[in-house]
Design brief:
The strands form 4 sheets. Strands 2, 3, 4, 5, 6, 7, 9, 10, 11, 12, 13 and 16 form a 12-stranded mixed sheet that branches. The protein has a two-stranded parallel sheet with strand order 1-18. The N and C termini lie far apart (about 75 Å). A hairpin with a 7-residue loop joins strand 10 (about 130-135) and strand 11. About 15% of the residues lie in helices and about 35% in strands. It is mainly beta and about 240 residues long.
């Protein structure tokens, strides 16, 4: 059991470099995107459940993934029902996975490298129990971060069903770090996390780019053009 806890620290750093980009870069627009941004970031992560399309069915949940607390504290995620998360195995022993942190513009639903896979909650080898972020204490007073969302903001990928059709989506997560809170009133061994926003492609079996938001409607564009013309005319008269 102890060996398993130690092995969790060996996150493949190259994956972090390949997929994490924080802060997110250019965010594209797609005309068939359904987008939601809560009025304030959703926190804490543990215990949260998301219904991405508002149909009353939970698609994603976050839960306590701690192992032998307080030696190893972590937040984990899994799909609910048939939903699948984009993950990478923790290592050759195939014991669990990491939720992959994606950079803005990553094509979710496109071709994947051999190191990535879609995992449902009941996937073999505990792939469906994906570590989001955590901290390990090998010795008193020292911290070893774990998980690709530790101390960064990035996107996760999800595949879920609406009726019998499959859809792709993203959720943007900001991961905190272990230590005292900003006001010094609380100490976090398990780093805090926040859900910032999410979106999905309304067309079935169609990839979505991480961070993609809806395109402005024709009415909004026309209104903006009218405002620009008014400003230009005002400047000429001034």
């Amino acid at each position: 059991m102890k060996c398993f806890a130690l092995f969790r620290l060996k996150s493949p750093v190259w994956l972090v470099l390949a997929f994490v980009q924080a802060p997110a870069g250019h965010i594209s627009a797609q005309g068939t995107i359904i987008y939601h941004q809560p009025s304030v970031p959703i926190s804490p992560l543990i215990g949260r459940q998301l219904d991405l399309d508002g149909d009353g069915q939970i698609d994603l949940r976050f839960y306590d993934g701690s192992y032998q607390p307080p030696l190893y504290s972590a937040t984990a995620a899994s799909g609910v029902g048939s939903a699948k998360l984009l993950v990478t195995p923790q290592g050759p022993n195939d014991l669990g996975s990491y939720l992959v942190a994606l950079s803005s513009g990553f094509e979710i639903g496109g071709s994947l490298s051999p190191s990535l896979l879609w995992a449902a909650h009941d996937a073999p080898n505990q792939y469906g129990d994906a570590t989001v972020l955590g901290t390990y204490l090998p010795n008193v007073g020292s911290f070893v971060p774990d998980g690709f969302f530790y101390g960064t903001t990035a996107f996760m990928g999800i595949q879920f069903q609406i009726g019998s059709d499959w859809h792709y989506g993203w959720v943007r997560i900001r991961g905190g770090v272990a230590g005292p809170s900003d006001d010094g009133q609380q100490f976090y061994l398990n780093p805090p996390g926040w859900i910032l926003d999410w979106a999905y492609e309304s067309r079935a079996d169609t990839p979505v780019f991480a961070g993609a938001v809806p395109e402005p409607s024709a009415g909004i564009l026309a209104g903006l053009g009218f405002v620009v013309l008014l400003i230009q005319r005002w400047r000429k008269l001034a």
